[in-house]
Design a protein that fits this description.
The protein is mainly α. Helices cover about 70% and strands about 0% of the residues. It is built from four helices and two strands; from the N terminus they run E-E-H-H-H-H. A two-stranded antiparallel ribbon has the order 1-2. Strand 1 and strand 2 form a beta hairpin. Helix 1 packs antiparallel against helix 2, helix 1 crosses helix 3 and helix 3 runs antiparallel to helix 4. The longest helix is centred in the middle third of the chain and has 31 residues. It is elongated and about 65 Å long.
């Protein structure tokens, strides 16, 4: 690659696979947290992040979740933009990381928050099994798709085309 300002050749940057994947994970976690918070907490009003206290505490917990997801989203996109600016972004690994993050968040929420810690359930006053199955299987599918994409991209040889 030629640097036009100096008229000299610049070395071609090698993709930073680890950072591309981790930036995607951070964005994926933030997006899935936002979808959960907006759809299930606000629009459908099925639950709050922490339902085991007063309505004021539930609302505060939703606000803290929302603040954390926005910070993670901004940080993830700054990281992504920096990788892209330095020409070391691996788009496929970033997408794989995104799916890993989204699926990991959903599965963690479904198993740890809903079942182990019981900070909230998906919905109240209904039979939970169908909701739990769809929630956790959806998270597992996203997680497995992300793992497959990362594995497939990393297993390709450097001369096989763009990563």
């Amino acid at each position: 690659m030629v640097d036009s300002s100096l008229g000299r050749e610049r070395p071609v940057a090698v993709p930073d696979g680890r950072s591309s994947t981790l930036a995607g994970v951070l964005i994926g976690v933030a997006i899935m947290a936002a979808v959960d918070e907006i759809v299930f907490h606000q629009l459908l009003a099925w639950h709050h992040f922490y339902d085991r206290s007063t309505p004021s505490v539930a609302l505060l917990s939703d606000g803290l979740l929302h603040a954390a997801e926005v910070i993670a989203l901004v940080g993830g996109f700054f990281w992504f933009a920096d990788l892209r600016r330095r020409l070391v972004l691996s788009p496929r690994l970033a997408w794989g990381g995104f799916l890993l993050g989204a699926g990991g968040f959903q599965l963690f929420d479904g198993l740890v928050d809903h079942k182990v810690l019981r900070v909230h359930q998906i919905r109240y006053g209904v039979h939970l099994l169908p909701y739990d199955v769809v929630w956790n299987v959806g998270g597992a599918v996203l997680l497995l798709a992300g793992a497959a994409l990362v594995w497939w991209t990393r297993s390709r040889r450097p001369g096989d085309g763009p990563r």
